[in-house]
Structure formats: structure tokens, C-alpha cells
Amino acid sequence: MREATAMLIPGPADAPGETAPGAREADVVRYVDRLLGAFEADPPLVYASGRADGSFLPLSPAQRVGWRRRVDGLQHAYRSGVRTLDRLTGGDFAGAPPGTRHRALCDAEATAFRDLLFDHAIEGTYGDPVYRGRPTPAGRTDLGLPGVREGGPDPVRPHAGEGPDPVAALARHFLEAARAVASPGGSDG
Predict the structure, then answer these.
(1) Could you tell me the pTM of the whole model?
(2) What are the extents of the domains in the chain?
(3) pLDDT, tens digit, for every residue of 150-168?
(4) Three-state secondary structure along the chain?
């Protein structure tokens, strides 16, 4: 997975002349591992509290069922996708030459997994470091956004279940925008 995400969002170690951190530098693999193992912790590692301690909010019973289904589906997709990439590269995606890995990622059989991996690479590279198991730094982040203030922000309350989940809606809009920028023709700016 590390080599695949590094091809999707290359950083200095992956592309000569690249100066911005990529998926490898952001430790996207750790993000994905934590997402796939979200229910190994209590509360599950789904909604960060926004506090400087890196804690997570408890899920309502309905959220727990919904997220459990999502995580189970993601685990299945990753097992299947990794097997597909390994098969397309002769048995070892990570050990294959870069050109072979690139062809495997572009293969029609790998499209759904590549898209899922790209979504998670974007989330893991540009999302809050707390989802990678690291505290959000105080001050400014790499993207120039404010980090956690001393004492942390006001506590965040879990979604009560009335209407659409605002965090899921925001994530969906973010992924749509990231795909638009990454697609051929991308953005105008």
C-alpha cells in the first residue's frame, strides 16, 4: 500500500524535484491501518474530538452499526484490492519496478481499488494528523491552517442522527473536489 499511495501522491522521495510532502511523508499507510482497525479501540477511531489529547468521540448505536458496516466493507475492499495489485505485478506489487506498478494501478481490474486508495491517500495526506495517531500540532499546520489552541477547541458533540451527518457530507464534498483536481483537465488554477 505504501508504494501505491506514494505513486498516487508523490513526495520528495518518489518524484525528483518534488518539494511538497506526499503520501509517504504523511504516513498514509498508518492512516489506512487505523481506519481499517477503527473498532479495535473504544471509542472507535472515527470522529476525532478536536481536543489536543487526540481523543475520539463515542458513537451512537446507529452510528456504530453504520460505521461497522463501512469498515467491514473497506477491509474486504483492501484485501481484494491488494491481492489484485499483487497479481497484476507478478506477485509482489511493492517489489515490482515502478513502471509495472504504474501499469497495475492503471489496469481496469484495479480501477475501483485505485479510486478508493486515492480517496484515502488524499484524506491521510491532507487530513488532521490525529487520524494517523499523532496529535495536531499547535500553531499553523503545513497547509497554513490553524492547529489546536492550548486547551483545545470547544468540545465537539457527536451527530445526533437527525438529518444527514455533516461530517460525512463535508468529506464527500472534499473527495469530489479532490477528484476534480486530479482528473485529466483538472482545475483551471
Answers:
(1) 0.72
(2) 2-182
(3) 444 444 455 455 566 655 6
(4) CHHHHHHHCCCCCCCCCCCCCCHHHHCHHHHHHHHHCHHHCCCCCCCECCCCCCCECCCCHHHHHHHHHHHHHHHHHHHHHHHHHHHHCCCCCCCCCHHHHHHHHHCHHHHHHHHHHHHHHHHHHHCCHHHHCCCCCECECCCCCECECCCCCCCCCCCCCCCCCHHHHHHHHHHHHHHHHHCCCCCCC
**Residue where the block lists cell 481536543:** 51
> Length of the chain, please?
189
Q: Cα–Cα distances in Å, from 36 out to 20, 50, 85, 123, 188?
A: 27, 21, 18, 14, 35
Question: Rounded to 10 degrees, what is the CA torsion of 140, 142, 145, 147?
Answer: -50
Q: Which three cell numbers stand for residue 16?
A: 525528483
